[in-house]
Amino acid sequence: MSAAKDAFGGQSLSSFTKNQEALRNCGKLLTFLITHKDSGPFVEPVNWKEWGLLDYPKIIKTPMDLNLVKVSSSTQQLLERGNYV
Fold first, then answer.
1. According to the model, what pLDDT value does residue 35 have?
2. I need a labelling partner for 52 at 20 to 30 A (CA). Which of 23, 44, 71, 76 fits?
3. Quick check: 66 and 34 in contact, CB under 8 A?
4. Given this model, what pLDDT does residue 59 score?
5. DSSP secondary structure of the chain
6. What is the signed CA dihedral for 11, 17, 22, 28, rounded to 10 degrees?
7. What is the pLDDT of residues 65-76, one digit of tens each?
8. HSE on the CB side for 73, CA within 13 Å?
9. How many other C-beta atoms can be found within 10 angstroms of the C-beta atom of residue 2?
10. Residue 76 and residue 73: Cα distance in Å, rounded?
11. What is the model's pLDDT at position 26?
12. Of 27, 7, 28, 3, which Cα lies nearest the Cα of 16?
């Protein structure tokens, strides 16, 4: 592997730049979604106990809310796996 690819996590400069641009665009999209007037139910985790949704953890194996995505250190991993959307 070349020194240039080592510097960019095994990617060429062009691939690295495209990934960085995609990550910035995902951040912009996430900010838009969090601040949208209809995003309320998706910003914070579902309070399933308070709402009496006792089967929620059985149905939803990996709960996800927009704030979790925002602060998650795995945002880059989500993007790389194509799971951001």
1. 94
2. 71
3. yes
4. 96
5. --HHHHHTTTS-HHHHHHHHHHHHHHHHHHHHHHHSTT-HHHHS---TTTTT-TTHHHH-SS---HHHHHH-TTHHHHHHTT---
6. 140
7. 998 888 775 556
8. 0
9. 8
10. 7
11. 83
12. 7
Give me the residue label for tokens 């139910």: 41
Residue 18 has pLDDT above 60, yes or no: yes
User: What does the chain come to in residues?
Assistant: 85
Residue with tokens 């927009």: 66
What is d(CA 10, CA 47) in angstroms, rounded to the nearest whole number? Answer: 41
pLDDT at 21: 82
**Predicted local distance difference test score (pLDDT) of residue 19:** 74
pLDDT in tens, 49-59: 999 999 999 99
